[in-house]
């Protein structure tokens, strides 16, 4: 009889201890889950910050490449493209994926359009490819007509805008019914946009630009 009582007592004690251990284990699981959730949230926030920093670094790298990586200016690239492919230059811009070449759009006398690539360090023609998309709308035709009769061509527009900073792009746009040259520049790490009049070559800051340059 006493033996059975002793066994029963030990069993109850064991169960009580086990229940306590189980309770602690359950509590530890909840704490661990909470900690894991906090760690995950912190990691997500850190990854987001890293991505933003990477984007800023990429933008800064492209700016540095555009400004210091190319010895050939926009005006020089246009001149080289026209020497290789005579016609009317409509635009010139540095590649967005690393500024490894100037891309100059040229329309020849017969109406065919070519993209001429110019090396930014030497001015060498890397190649010329015909643009097979010949579907020009009314605005495109109007711009081409305006440029052909203009006093200021793409090269002269690039030269005029160069007084405001390093030109990274020159093109055409319609400003309230008036065709103008547009130019993007970088100066002291700041981007600015300008318009250049086709008739006079006058440079003014784009009204849509939020920069403080003057």
TrEMBL record:
Record keywords, A-Z: Signal
Signal sequence range: 1-25
Region of interest: Disordered: 30-72
Domain PepSY: 71-127, 153-204
Start-end of Polar residues biased regions: 30-43
Cited Pfam families: PepSY (PF03413)
InterPro entries, per the entry: PepSY (IPR025711)
Compositionally biased tracts (Acidic residues): 48-61
Keyword hit for Nuclease: no
Record keyword Signal present: yes
Protein name: PepSY domain-containing protein
Source organism per UniProt: Streptomyces sviceus (strain ATCC 29083 / DSM 924 / JCM 4929 / NBRC 13980 / NCIMB 11184 / NRRL 5439 / UC 5370)
